[in-house]
Amino acid sequence: MSRVFILVAALTAMALPALGQDTRSYTAANGTFEIPVTPQRIVALNDQIVALPLYELGAPVVGSAGRTDADGNHFLRGGMDTLGIDYANTGIEYVGGFNGLDVEAIAALQPDLIIGGPYTDPGVAEQLQKIAPTLLINNNELGIIETMRAFADITGKTGNFEARLQRYRDNVARLRDYLGDPEDISVGLTFMFPEGAEMWVYKHSGNLGAIAQVVTDLGFREPAAITALSTNETNYSAELIQDLDADFIFGFYRQQPDATPANIRAAYEKFAPGWCQALTACRNGQFILLPGPTFGPTMAGLDLALELIESNIAARPFTPFAEAE
Fold first, then answer.
1. Mean of per-residue pLDDT scores for the chain
2. What is the pLDDT of residue 11?
3. How far apart are CA 270 and CA 275, in angstroms?
4. Residue 8's pLDDT band (boundaries 50, 70, 90)?
């Protein structure tokens, strides 16, 4: 029996469980589809962007794309440090990388709903429609809050999400009171890769997940050099690093052997030798490395980012940066 015949048979068979479910129409970035009112078996086509917020909502995720380390072990990016989950301690099955999906593995899980994002190959998404309704949710256009709200709507978990979002917003209002005039405090967002070969800089409206949402909600000011960028995020030149100076500058580390706080600080030094002396924020102890979950797209990330900003900015005195006129 040919491999093609087996795959086609599997795709046809996997569609059968959804026939008895109540459905409703839902419009996603890739079109309008009939989806289960109460999905029971969801496959996520991206781990950090899709699987983690779905799992946090309590949605029944049975499979997810993921990453593979140097030893060949599969893992959910951000899973352990954000929600304490991975393939090994959940019922979630690995279905390939987000840019190398295993269609047969997805079919074998008998999903009744498949959810991807802007990084999902449209051709693969169309193929997956033969297994189950496949929605592509464009998190880049929606932003973190509206993306999570879309996931909550799709999975029937709106009540859980809205209650937690309101608590977050109440905490934002409280912290704004603590800060006094957050619009007078400048905050720069940077992302350094462990190899130290390139550094990215983000506007507060950039695609940096929870931390970008929090600094926007709090109303912090961007450094002038970042406001002047023509795009929301850019690969920045080491020669211009002094232009990024601000009251506070944030970078990020992760729970990976090559991305520890010490390694990331060393990467900044490799990228721009003498960088810390060039930035008053760093000289004054106001360059702060935040953990990976703070740039993830989850409520846990929002809450953590807010708490760390409170403890690092509102709860202590700091030396303001005098930006040149």
1. 93
2. 55
3. 9
4. very low
Separation between Cα atoms, residue 31 and residue 39, nearest integer Å: 19
Provide the residue type at 305 as one letter. Answer: A
Two structure tokens written together for 48? 């950090």
- Domains annotated for the chain, with CATH where assigned, are 3-156 (3.40.50.1980), 179-314 (3.40.50.1980)
Tens-place pLDDT, residues 64-116: 999 998 899 999 999 999 999 999 999 999 999 989 999 999 999 999 999 99
Strand partners, 75: 67
Cα(165)–Cα(154) distance, rounded to whole angstroms?
17
Question: Stretch 146-160: mean pLDDT, rounded?
Answer: 95
Contacts of 137-142 with C-beta under 8 Å, sequence gap 24+, read 137/28, 137/29, 137/50, 138/29, 139/49, 139/207, 139/297, 140/207, 141/29
